[in-house]
Amino acid sequence: MYENDEPAPVRLDLLVVGSANADLVIGVERRPGPGETVLGSDLVVHPGGKGANQAVAAARLGARTALLARVGDDAHGRLLLESQQQAGVDTGGVLVGGAPTGVALITVDPSGDNSIVVSPGANARLTPEDIKAADPLFRAARVVSVQLEIPLETVAETARSLAPGSRLVLNPSPPAPLPEDVLSACDPLVVNEHEARYILGDTAGPAPEDWARTLLTHGPRSVVVTLGAAGALVADSRTADCVRVPSPEVDAVDTTGAGDAFTAALAWRLGLGDELAAAAAFAVRVGAAAVTGQGAQASFPTAAQVAEV
Ligand code: RIB
User: Fold this and answer.
1) Is 296 among the domain residues?
2) Which residues pair with 112 in a beta bridge?
């Protein structure tokens, strides 16, 4: 079903399938250890969730974007829908109800680093049937991007639902064991160090180049390793190339959502026909811009702002 009885878009640069969370954010001097209590800043509530973040990031850059997700029939759900609509995301595929909206408890330290605990809520009720019912969105999309804050069987159905000629971008976050058919549909698989080490286990070599090359043997057609302030590394099974893409230097305020902005920008530019290294070179600038502002979606740049980074 495409919600709201509206016609589905005819052409989409990017369909994002994934989570939508209310981010409950507290700034801390340092994170508490087990059994310890620390005082933090006033609580701020931002729209977030890896799927919703990617959709806003892509739309803000100018991509025709739709989100397929599930939120609760509650104030957090309304906050999320409003943020999507303000960014210009097509929300006809956002399902409402079934459980409270997902929530992420986030602490941000003075260096801008975050740690996150997610209560999936409605995200856990996004089912394979919901994916099948959204077929018009899949037929319209050049690129489909998915993450792992929704059930794994829903991710697997997403990989099976790609229209001929469209491309799957997967960020396996938070990491979980992935079926072979999902891994081999990825073009690219986008991982940070933590996710790469999770997938590779003992087979992870010492350098990001080793991780990328070994990840390619697990089936993805291409791999992108994000390296934080050091940029990214791309590897493509078709060319056997492994290329480092440096990031511009910026003062980080809050890294929350920067990886989502990177992945959205990458997915959009791949859909426009960029080579992997060129798409990553644009995406690292988007990620760099995103760490200079507070919160996830609020910090995502427009194309004009990316040009200034
Ligand atoms: O990647 C950042 C996101 O992770 C946050 O917005 C939070 O909701 C969690 O999903």
Assistant:
1) yes
2) none
Does the C-beta of 220 come closer than 6 Å to ligand 1?
Answer: no
Whose tokens are 């994000």? That residue is 226
Query: What are the helix (H) ranges across the chain?
Result: 50-61, 75-87, 128-133, 135-140, 152-160, 180-185, 193-200, 208-216, 258-271, 276-290, 303-307
Q: What is the CA radius of gyration of the chain?
A: 18
Is there a domain that residue 1 lies in?
no
**Ligand 1 atom with the shortest distance to the CA of 19:** 10
296 pocket-lining for ligand 1 (C-beta < 6 Å):
yes
- Residues paired with residue 47 on neighbouring β-strands, in sequence order: 22
For the stretch 10-69, pLDDT in tens is 799 999 999 999 999 999 999 999 999 999 999 999 999 999 999 999 999 999 999 999
| CB-CB contact of 221 with 236 (8 Å) | yes
Q: Is 260 designated active site?
A: yes
> Is residue 132 in a domain?
yes
Rounded-to-integer distance, Cα 145 and Cα 158, Å: 9
Question: Could you tell me the CA-to-CA distances from 66 to 90, 103, 198, 286, 309 in Å, in that order?
Answer: 4, 21, 30, 19, 27
pTM reported for the whole predicted model = 0.94
Considering its fold, how many domains does the chain have in total? 1
